[in-house]
Amino acid sequence: MPVTPVMPVLPAGEAHLLRTTVPAHPSRAAGVRAMLAEHLTQLGLSPDHLDNAVLAADELFVNAVKHGSPDPGGTITVTVEYTERELRVTVADRSPALPRLRTADGAEESGRGLAIVAALSDDWGIAPAGPGSAGKKVWFALMLRGMP
């Protein structure tokens, strides 16, 4: 099932916002990646920025599904904010458990997600959920130097 954005794209020259909420299920990862790639392509991101953003967002989404969705009917909200200088992607889930950056040894099959996000982005972090909401937001930013 395709992922449909909640907020429309604004006219050129203004900040752009895309927000979608999807079920917290691994089967939704491909749809989220496709939606992000299509949206970022329409914004004219360079291939490197696009690839880095989609991969980092996928890592955050997978982490939210695996570690941040305690309820079977849980949801994850993905928000993309774009200005001519910065692209910020935020993934919000309902778990209060905070992720931690760690070093996985060579034999481990997981544990590298945040290290990948840190390597691909210019900045990343964790923020509390909005007022009256449970959970947290994990975000990353890419600086878009030289973008039109």
From TrEMBL:
Which keywords does the record carry? Answer: ATP-binding, Kinase, Nucleotide-binding, Serine/threonine-protein kinase, Transferase
Nucleus as a keyword of this entry, yes or no, is: no
- Look up keyword Aminoacyl-tRNA synthetase and say if it applies: no
Enumerate the SUPFAM superfamilies for this protein: ATPase domain of HSP90 chaperone/DNA topoisomerase II/histidine kinase (SSF55874)
User: Which Pfam family, any one, appears in the UniProt record?
Assistant: HATPase_c_2
Q: Which molecular-function annotations from GO does this UniProt entry contain?
A: ATP binding
Highest taxon of source: Bacteria
Signal peptide extent: none
Domain Histidine kinase/HSP90-like ATPase intervals: 22-138
List, alphabetically, the InterPro entries matched.
Anti-sigma-factor_SerPK, HATPase_C_sf, HATPase_dom
Protein known as: ATP-binding protein
- Organism per entry: Streptomyces lutosisoli
